[in-house]
Design brief:
single chain, 60s Ribosomal Protein L30, Chain: A, two-stranded antiparallel ribbon
Length: 151
């Protein structure tokens, strides 16, 4: 029988090997939908590798016009999360599949108001999350959110 320490070291070694393994081109699927803003640079809306969906950061861009919609933190947060939802759904998943979120805020004082909107998208079993204040975001928006989903 293995000791807990040996089992932990074995799991860490296995995880390190998995992370270092190259991903074959056929295992990498680009996710794109007209229901979310087109990429404004050399990146994809999302990339799926196996059962993991890596979602690019979304900002408050209206997908129908591809123009930024500046507004309150509540308005921008809702648009950003709607955009993320559209990309997740294009991959055949739902918001419940999101396991990790990174929120970038221009002003951390707006966290409680952002959080109130955010909570409506993850009413039960919310994903892990990190929130950081940044000096500036693309197109001078208030918020950007990136995420990872698992099927």
């Amino acid at each position: 029988m293995s000791s807990p320490r040996r089992l932990t070291l074995t799991l860490v070694a296995c995880a390190s090997v998995l992370v270092a393994m190259p991903i074959a081109a056929e295992e990498r699927r680009i996710i794109s939908t007209p229901n979310a803003p087109a990429a404004i640079g050399p990146y994809s809306q999302a990339v799926q590798t196996g059962n993991i969906l890596w979602l690019a950061g979304q900002i408050a861009i209206d997908p129908t016009t591809n123009q930024v919609r500046h507004g309150t933190i509540e308005e921008e947060t809702k648009l950003v999360l709607d955009n993320l939802k559209a990309v997740v759904e294009a991959a055949g998943m739902t918001m419940a599949n999101i396991v990790s979120v990174t929120v970038f805020l221009k002003d951390l004082d707006e966290f409680p108001r952002m959080n109130a909107v955010y909570a409506t998208y993850f009413p039960t079993n919310p994903p892990a999350r990190a929130t950081v204040q940044v000096a500036r975001l693309p197109r001078d928006v208030r918020i950007e959110i990136a995420a990872v989903a698992v099927r």
